[in-house]
Specification:
GO terms for molecular function: 1,3-beta-glucanosyltransferase activity. It is a lipid-anchor; GPI-anchor. The chain is α/β, with parallel strands linked by helices and about 450 residues long. It has helices at about 70-80, 100-105, 125-130, 135-145, 170-185, 205-215, 245-250, 275, 315-325, 365, 370, and strands spanning about 35-40, 45, 50, 85-90, 110-115, 150-160, 195-200, 225-230, 255-260, 290, 305, 310-315, 430, 435. α1 (about 70-80) runs parallel beside α2 (about 100-105) and α4 (about 135-145) crosses α5 (about 170-185).
């Protein structure tokens, strides 16, 4: 999201690698779509063909999935575009999302969800105090609210927390949140929902951030990496835009990668990049992407304009619709890498201010939830906020401390409707058991 809110200027969002979690009493599971997992071995891949969806934008935070009228209205447009995925930046974790998630599932659409809100997020300027028990409890509650839907594709632990060279010191906290989310999902006995980070379009440290999120012990590594990219500005090309270098730099990367935002609006948008993104020149590394953004929110990126409950499709809508319809996915595996390994952690430099590989230990109050079970009711879109709530980390984590050692006994039995129960693997995403690989996997660093 280009702008999240005034608070988010300092309070950047974080995301952790989710493992199926359950809480809020057994939420209904969407059973009409097979869960997607990060796993190798398959002959046809799943590519993200999606948009970023947050009607109201950063100035008027509203949960689009808590209102059936909004969902019904917008899903009809998603179907016209031929989408299989939407990203939502902010939700009310106290609301019931059964109806909207089922409507999305009926349309064959998966959800990639950011778990942060402006009030409950990391502060990029002073990350240590904001990494606390209240914050983690709230994002765990969001995981609980969505883990049982089989069309929850992935969670973002953060979005653009690091947005320049001076904020890279917040990276260990982003990585810790991702670790904690993954551990919580596993400890709650949920299916293995992938967790990863959405990085800003910062050339000077994008590769370092990607390497950092994939280095260290298995419990410290993300399930995937994504970044927001606005370098292809029509008219352009694979080489003029620099996308050829973003394929070269990430080739051999050990976890799936995709574009969490794309669609430069400097000139008239024809979405010529779609043809490259879903061609074999890129699919060996990338698993598609999400266009920014569905509705016009004042920044001239909107595909549609919403007035009341009326949707008016703009020229960008037609251009994207045409581009997607004219660009089928590659046949077979798309050239993905079937093996994936950890990256080497990047050294400190003038553009990367992380001095060592150590991560902060999870705050004790949040750690207790790994064994006691449910996080309880979240704070929704209100509340006092978490950034100075206390209950912070008191030390450095030991390697492997984020591993799942036991599953909470209070976990609901309604945990994985339609899931295959396959374990996570650092390889392409597949629709569990149905061999639909998500080039989300072994690719190269941008």
């Amino acid at each position: 999201m280009k702008t999240f809110s005034v608070l988010a200027a300092l309070a950047a969002t974080v995301l952790a690698s989710p493992t199926p979690t359950e809480e809020l009493v057994a939420r209904a599971s969407s059973t009409s779509l097979t869960p997607i997992t990060v796993k190798g071995n398959g002959s046809s891949r799943f590519y993200i063909r999606g948009v970023d969806w947050q009607p109201g934008g950063s100035s008027q935070l509203v949960d689009p999935m808590a209102d059936t009228t909004t969902c019904t209205r917008d899903i009809a447009e998603f179907v016209k575009l031929g989408l299989n995925t939407v990203r939502v930046y902010t939700v009310d974790n106290t609301a019931n999302h059964d109806a909207c998630m089922q409507l999305l599932a009926n349309a064959g659409i998966y959800l990639v969800l950011d778990v942060n809100t402006p009030l409950y997020s990391l502060n990029r300027a002073t990350p240590a105090p904001s990494y606390n028990t209240v914050y983690l409890t709230n994002i765990f509650a969001t995981i609980d609210a969505f883990a049982n839907y089989t069309n929850t594709l992935a969670f973002f632990s953060g979005n653009e927390v690091i947005n320049d060279d001076t904020t890279t010191s917040a990276a260990p906290y982003v990585k810790a949140v991702t670790r904690d989310m993954r551990q919580y999902i596993g400890s709650r006995g949920y299916r293995s929902i992938p967790v990863g980070y959405s990085a800003a379009d910062v050339d000077s440290n994008r590769v370092e951030m990607a390497e950092y999120m994939n280095c260290g012990t298995d419990d410290q590594r993300s399930d995937f990496f994504a970044f927001n990219d606005y370098s292809w500005c029509d008219p352009s090309s694979f080489t003029t835009s620099g996308w050829d270098q973003k394929v070269k730099n990430f080739t051999g990367y050990g976890i799936p990668i995709f574009l969490s935002e794309y669609g430069c609006n400097t000139n008239v948008r024809k979405f010529e990049e779609v043809a490259s993104l879903y061609s074999t020149t890129m699919t060996g590394v990338y698993s598609g992407g999400l266009v920014y953004e569905y509705s016009e929110e004042g920044s001239h990126y909107g595909l549609v304009t919403i007035t009341g409950n009326t949707v008016t499709e703009g020229p960008d809508f037609t251009s994207l619709q045409t581009a997607l319809a004219g660009t089928p996915n590659p046949t077979g595996d798309g050239g993905y890498s079937s093996t994936g390994s950890a990256s080497t952690c990047p050294p400190q430099s003038s553009t990367w201010n992380v001095t060592n590989d150590a991560l902060p230990a999870i705050p004790s109050g949040a750690a207790a939830l790994m064994s006691t079970g449910a996080a309880g009711k979240g704070f929704g879109l209100t509340g006092a906020g978490s950034q100075n709530a206390g209950g912070t980390s008191t030390g450095t984590a030991s390697a492997g401390s984020g591993s799942v050692t036991a599953v909470a006994t209070s976990t609901s039995t309604a945990k994985k409707s339609g899931a295959s129960g396959q374990s996570l693997d650092v390889r392409p995403m597949i629709v569990s058991g149905v061999v639909l690989i998500f080039s989300f996997v072994g690719a190269a660093l941008l």
